[in-house]
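User: My collaborator sent over this chain with a note saying "see what the structure looks like." That's all I know about it. Can you take a look?
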Amino acid sequence: MTCLLALVLVAAPAIPPGDLLQGKPPSASQGVLTPQQLTDGVFLREGESWDAPFSARIEPNGFARWDLGAPTEIRCLALQGDNNEDYIVDGSLDGETFTRIWAAEKQENAGLLTRYGQVQATARYLKVWTTGGDGLYAISEIAAWSTCPAPWPPVLERISGQPISPPARLVIAFFVLAMLLAISTVKPGATPLVKLTYLLPMAAGVYLVSWLIDPNFDAWGTLGLGVVVIVGYWYSQRPKSAAPAAPAAPAAPEGPPAPKDP
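Assistant: Without extra context I'll predict from the sequence alone. Here is the result:
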């Protein structure tokens, strides 16, 4: 049940299909603290802090490089990075000689901001690095396409980069424990009204927990998933049909009548 609840509470942000880098960790990197987060499919809300969770902090002179496996056309790029630096994307056919494909230039507004670029390039290797700014470098996501998504720039689903506060974590933990305890007390054969008194608070709790995780989370979708999980468990606890009774054993034949007294 805990695994099912986790599925209810976590939703993966969507990137338009065809991203050449999504889910592909860099084949080489230097000075990138969490390189796998560069292509984990998570774009944060615009303006999040440069060191927010899900962003990869980059040291000066740091870089990340990907091997696409074969020469590949590059037509569109998206990069979300700290606002006051330039982020450079280079391409190479042999992994040795790199030429600039695109520069995601610094922006005026503060925080992590997304830049979009359309290019005409062919490369097997892509490398991203940064220059300028205040030396506090971070990229939350980089994506590349051979065919530009429509519309362009694409509509990206984003999540909050702010960690869940300790009070919210406490509420979530309490809700999970209370939910498991409540489910354990529902007896098979309980009336629908009794089961409904469990279902409605649980559904409301799923809604509250989703809001605590992210106020802009798709709470109605989460609520629907929560109802499905709970109703499924409810259905699994329905009374089992009684097994058919075993046929009665045949009666033993009566013996001869007892002799009467003379």
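A starting point for your reply to your collaborator: Residues 186 and 195 are 7 Å apart (CA to CA).
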